[in-house]
Design brief:
Mean pLDDT: 89
Strand content: 15-25%
Distance between the termini: 19 Å
Length: 433
């Protein structure tokens, strides 16, 4: 259902299509550039109001859905606060993720593209946010970054047989930066601005060197980005900052919480029915307030219908397919509500209907999420209520589904599915929900 509010109606274009989990370091991404079919499309209005103030959908070209999910999360918070679109560069955060892997001695012959919401927001705190136009200008208006794919191939070649093949070379942070700059084909102007802020050998980071002053050079601190946040004590919405929403991490591992009055928290999806219902009510309340809830879940592509749904019935009909972890951002939901009937996703709901939807007898049919697999995808689905958004049926999210082994090449071994799993793993909710 779409949430009624006093805000003006907003139009969604076909480009408005676009995974927080700290439980999974991988992405079940439809990421291969070779899978692209057809031409990019855009411009036509397909819906008249959103539940969450989402920005345009993008399409990942490598397995970094977690970066796309984190970016669309804070872009929605910023748009909700200012009404303006912040087109953050996922490539920027990907660059620094690779830098830390190599410089910290965690890279083998191949970069790991997987990560988590926690990793993403930590990168934001250390290296800030850059707009797409200020990092790779050629991709400022692109749905998919081809530069990420080519950069990955180039840096892996450097790690395997090039300048970074030796451990000693990888400890040379100036060399690591230079190899990354070359792999990403960064302009001299962009490299110069990065060197001014961080140093060629990364002797400075945002969180340590720019606590009280802006770094400039087109780099934004989390404290410089507006965010629409709800005060958990007063219940009133305020214009805070992304730094407020991220807060400060307490402890290590996926179980770590974040401190701060407005800090968003990861919530593990319970195994029992009562616990699941309670968590879903928290998700509903957040969506009623147009808050972008980050979701971590397991994908089985054989559950994906031509209508852009992940369906348990479809999965049972076809059997297990390609699998992996994924991160997206919730946008809306559909539910059968006692005394009301079906509240449809995409249709306006009154405050009375929203209150009724929180009753114990409500049966949620699906969560609608903004994804990072692109908008117009006849190779994956033929139609969607909003192009690029997917409906995750609760029956699928609750599972269990068959969990298959992964082959050494990363493909799913559908002949070896001896375990079971609950697809929905974790949600990241705002403070007070």
């Amino acid at each position: 259902m779409t949430i009624a509010s006093s805000t003006p109606l907003r139009w969604l274009s076909l480009a408005l299509i676009a995974s927080a989990g700290v439980l999974t370091p991988a992405c079940a991404a439809d990421e291969s550039p070779d899978a692209v079919t057809g031409e990019e499309e855009g411009g036509a209005a397909v819906d008249d109001i959103t539940s969450v103030d989402h920005t345009d959908v993008k399409r990942q070209s490598i397995g970094n859905c977690w970066i796309y999910a984190a970016a669309t999360w804070f872009e929605a918070l910023a748009k909700g606060a200012t009404g303006e679109t912040l087109n953050a560069s996922e490539s920027w955060l990907t660059y620094w993720h690779w830098y830390e892997q190599i410089a910290n001695g965690d890279a083998g012959e191949d970069i790991s593209t997987g990560g988590s919401f926690e990793t993403a927001v930590s990168l934001v705190l250390r290296y800030g946010v850059v707009l797409e136009k200020d990092f790779i200008p050629e991709e400022a208006n692109s749905e998919m970054s081809m530069r990420q794919s080519s950069a990955l191939a180039a840096i892996n070649a450097s790690l395997k047989s090039g300048a970074l093949k030796d451990a000693a070379a990888r400890r040379n942070k100036t060399l690591v930066r230079a190899e990354l700059d070359k792999a990403w084909q960064l302009s001299g102007d962009v490299v110069g601005r990065m060197n001014t802020v961080f140093g060629a050998a990364v002797t400075k980071t945002i969180d340590r060197s720019y606590k009280t002053r802006k770094p400039g050079n087109d780099i934004l601190r989390a404290a410089d980005i507006a965010a629409r946040l709800k005060d958990p004590q007063t219940g009133q919405f305020i214009q805070g900052t992304l730094a407020d929403a991220i807060g400060k991490r307490d402890g290590e591992g996926w179980w770590a919480t974040r401190s701060g009055k407005f800090a968003w928290q990861g919530v593990r999806y319970p195994a029992d029915a009562a616990g699941r219902a309670a968590v879903m009510k928290r998700v509903q309340r957040a969506l009623h307030d147009r808050q972008p809830v980050v979701t971590t879940w397991d994908v089985d592509f054989n559950a994906l219908t031509s209508g852009s749904r992940f369906s348990m019935a479809e999965l049972e009909r076809r059997g297990p397919g390609r699998q992996g972890g994924h991160l997206t951002v919730a946008h809306d939901y559909q539910a059968e509500v006692p005394g009301i009937g079906l509240l449809k996703a995409g249709e306006q709901a009154t405050p009375e209907q929203m209150d009724a939807a929180l009753s114990d007898g409500t049966k949620i049919e699906f969560l609608r999420v903004k994804n990072s697999w692109g908008g117009i995808r006849p190779d994956r689905w033929n139609e969607a209520a909003i192009p690029g958004f997917h409906d995750l049926e609760l029956a699928y999210l609750n599972g269990p589904i068959k969990k298959c082994a992964q082959k050494p090449d990363g493909e799913t071994d559908t002949t070896n599915c001896t375990m079971q799993a609950t697809p929905l793993r974790q949600l990241v909710l705002p403070a007070g929900y």
